[in-house]
Amino acid sequence: MDLERQSKPFTISPWVDLLWGAAFTILWVFVAARLYSSLLPILVLATLLYSGICFAVVAHWPKTKDFGWANRTTLLRASLIIVLVAAAPFIPAFPSTDHALWVYAVGALIALILDGVDGKLARITHSSSRFGARFDMEMDALLILGLCIAVVMSGKAGFWVLALGLMRYLFVAAASALDWLNRPLPESFRRKTICVWQIVTLMVAVLPPTPPMVASLALATALLLLAWSFMTDVYWLYERRFHHQTV
């Protein structure tokens, strides 16, 4: 009996992780509220977004299985990204010397750095999972959307920039109607590179020293690359649609 207890792996309930994730989210909310003077709207938006993460974890992660350090890192990153998205509508317009824009860009940079940390932890601890990969992917998409909103609100570019953040969600919506779009895509260096390029370009565009013309040109390039990448993936899936149906 004692040997069985000693050999049983130590696990932490996912609810514990969700609670400390909520605590970090609230902390970031108060920091953002101090910078942008909009506590209630940011708190409401952050609460709605974090509730979505809680629902996903409860619905798709086994209660008896440890959440893992890779997923915990993604959750920490998610708490920051959620507040960045919630605060994006309150970004001060360009030209502005407000340090809040710099803080926003630094927050996005930290989220980008953590994106590499969770993947490395998953490989080191041999804890890679479909849930973890999807969790990480959705946080990338949410960060990009938040940065798009921040760029629009800062006045560095027009509403067309939102296409960078909405393209992923349009693909998901199309996949709900067209089953062949749900086929797993192979690993792609091209896809990862363009994703990072999007985030970096958006972060640079938010910075006060970046002129609107430079920001718009760089973002237009990112949009063209993203559209090409999505078209490449959709074509790959379309060519294999019948094989997918017969499997």
Automatic annotation (TrEMBL):
<feature type="transmembrane region" description="Helical">
    <location>
        <begin position="137"/>
        <end position="153"/>
    </location>
</feature>
<dbReference type="InterPro" id="IPR000462">
    <property type="entry name" value="CDP-OH_P_trans"/>
</dbReference>
<dbReference type="Pfam" id="PF01066">
    <property type="entry name" value="CDP-OH_P_transf"/>
</dbReference>
<feature type="transmembrane region" description="Helical">
    <location>
        <begin position="12"/>
        <end position="33"/>
    </location>
</feature>
<feature type="transmembrane region" description="Helical">
    <location>
        <begin position="74"/>
        <end position="94"/>
    </location>
</feature>
<keyword id="KW-0812">Transmembrane</keyword>
<feature type="transmembrane region" description="Helical">
    <location>
        <begin position="217"/>
        <end position="238"/>
    </location>
</feature>
<protein>
    <submittedName>
        <fullName>CDP-alcohol phosphatidyltransferase family protein</fullName>
    </submittedName>
</protein>
<comment type="similarity">
    <text>Belongs to the CDP-alcohol phosphatidyltransferase class-I family.</text>
</comment>
<feature type="transmembrane region" description="Helical">
    <location>
        <begin position="39"/>
        <end position="62"/>
    </location>
</feature>
<keyword id="KW-0808">Transferase</keyword>
<dbReference type="InterPro" id="IPR048254">
    <property type="entry name" value="CDP_ALCOHOL_P_TRANSF_CS"/>
</dbReference>
<keyword id="KW-1133">Transmembrane helix</keyword>
<keyword id="KW-0472">Membrane</keyword>
<feature type="transmembrane region" description="Helical">
    <location>
        <begin position="100"/>
        <end position="117"/>
    </location>
</feature>
